[in-house]
Specification:
- This protein is mainly α and 397 residues long.
- It has 3 domains: 158 residues, no CATH class; 46 residues, no CATH class; 79 residues, no CATH class.
- Helices cover 49% and strands 11% of the residues.
- The strands form 5 sheets. A 3-stranded antiparallel β-sheet has the order 3-4-5. It has a 3-stranded antiparallel β-sheet with strand order 10-11-12, with no helix packed on it.
- Helix 3 crosses helix 4, helix 4 crosses helix 5 and helix 11 packs across helix 12.
- The radius of gyration is 33 Å and the shape is elongated.
- About 2% of the residues have low confidence.
- It binds zinc ion (ZN).
């Protein structure tokens, strides 16, 4: 201990005795970085000493409220820097890898101190190496962000698969930064599957590069996105599984000319009866027999193949069943009220159309389904009950 103090003093003396005016520009640059590295190693040793002193309780009975309080008073430093030092010591004690990285000059003391919260509260089986590896050579700011991501990942280990999916999904976003030089950067954050769909869609729309096309891949994707948005604005985007054709739901009486009730597309547009009758001459027809909203029969050819069921659902639900939602059928997904795995049937009584958002809401942890497709209530985890009555009934109400 005495030898260490002696050597420390001599090191400080030696550094102080360097004749700075003899140093060139390059030497000065090297020196300031080098000294910081040495100070960091001293800081680490100091911090570990402080943590040990805390465990030993050197501050107890002195009137100080804590180790940091005691240290700040004794050394005339701020409470903030004293508690930072203690935090660094605790971090190094909790993770020999952090101590080694600082000792080897691979991580600054300031960076190591930001890992305190994550490392001292990590579960026993947490992969500390991955965090240490990730923050080597980064500053405190980046390290703090990495540590909080890492911490989130580790606390996630206690979650069920369902909860983890839900937590990830809640982070989806589209965020635009303020314009710079007339350009706006928009960051799209999506679950992997949806991200694939997104990129597939815009690259399909963009098409393959032709001879002499000098655009970068990024530029072509941007063009695909612009074209897709243009098409949407013009009403040319066809959603759902009926992409290549137009699906029309048409009352038999109207088809026969007894009434003029308009036909309805999967997008929810009304098509005048006369136009629908004309289209029907060249269309594939499928009979959907129903009483009120209940589908009785899908016609002879229908073998409850999923496309047939989809048509029946479009005819019955017209769009997302969630109260007040106006997403048309073409943009909806089929929801099985009871999942297959839980013994749910695939008949129409146990299937409804929901838009992507409400489909996700319905599948969130703790959500309960009450009733069937004809009389459907959804109870959210917070107790709110959503009446998902058929649209006709909603309109009447
Ligand atoms: Zn919806």
């Amino acid at each position: 201990m005495d030898l260490a103090f002696d050597l420390g003093d001599r090191a400080a003396d030696a550094l102080g005795a360097v004749e700075l005016h003899t140093l060139g520009r390059q030497q000065l640059a090297t020196a300031v970085v080098r000294v910081q590295g040495i100070i960091d190693r001293f800081t680490l040793a100091h911090a570990q000493m402080v943590a040990e002193a805390d465990r030993t309780g050197v501050w107890q009975g002195t009137g100080a409220r804590s180790m940091a309080d005691w240290l700040a008073g004794k050394t005339n430093t701020s409470y903030g820097s004293a508690s930072g030092l203690l935090a660094l010591g605790e971090t190094a004690d909790a993770s020999p890898e952090v101590a080694a990285a600082v000792g080897a000059g691979e991580m600054s003391a300031a960076t190591a101190a930001t890992l305190h919260d994550a490392i001292t509260t990590a579960p026993a089986d947490a992969d500390v190496s991955s965090l240490v590896k990730a923050v080597k050579g980064t500053g405190p700011r980046e390290a703090r962000a990495a540590a909080s991501r890492w911490k989130e990942l580790n606390s996630a280990k206690q979650e069920t698969e369902e909860e983890r999916e839900d937590r990830r999904y809640q982070r989806r976003s589209v965020r635009s930064a303020p314009p710079v030089d007339g350009m706006v950067s928009t960051t799209v954050t999506l679950p992997v599957l949806q991200s694939r769909q997104f990129i597939n869609a815009i690259s399909q729309v963009a098409g393959k590069p032709t001879e002499g096309d000098e655009r970068t891949t990024e530029q072509r994707l941007a063009d695909g996105l612009i074209m897709l948005c243009d098409a949407y604005a013009k009403g040319e985007v066809k959603g759902g599984r009926e992409r290549p054709t137009v699906l029309l739901v048409f009352e038999a009486e109207s088809y026969a000319g007894h009434t003029d009730t308009p036909a309805r597309t999967a997008n929810g547009d009304n098509i005048p009866a006369s136009v629908a009758r004309h289209l029907a001459e060249n269309a594939v027809l499928q009979r959907v027999l129903r009483v009120g909203s209940k589908i009785l029969d899908l016609g002879r050819e229908a073998r409850l193949a999923s496309d047939d069921q989809y048509r029946a659902l479009v005819a019955r639900d017209g769009g997302c069943r969630w109260l007040g939602c106006h997403i048309p059928a073409a943009w909806c997904e089929i929801d099985h009220l009871q999942p297959y795995a839980a013994g749910g049937a695939t008949d129409l009584d146990s299937m409804v159309l929901l838009c992507s958002h409400h489909h996700h809401e319905k599948h969130r942890p703790g959500v309960q389904v009450i009733g069937n497709a004809h009389s459907l209530l959804i109870r959210l985890a917070n107790g709110t009950v959503i009446d998902c009555a058929l649209r006709r009934a909603q309109a009447a109400a």
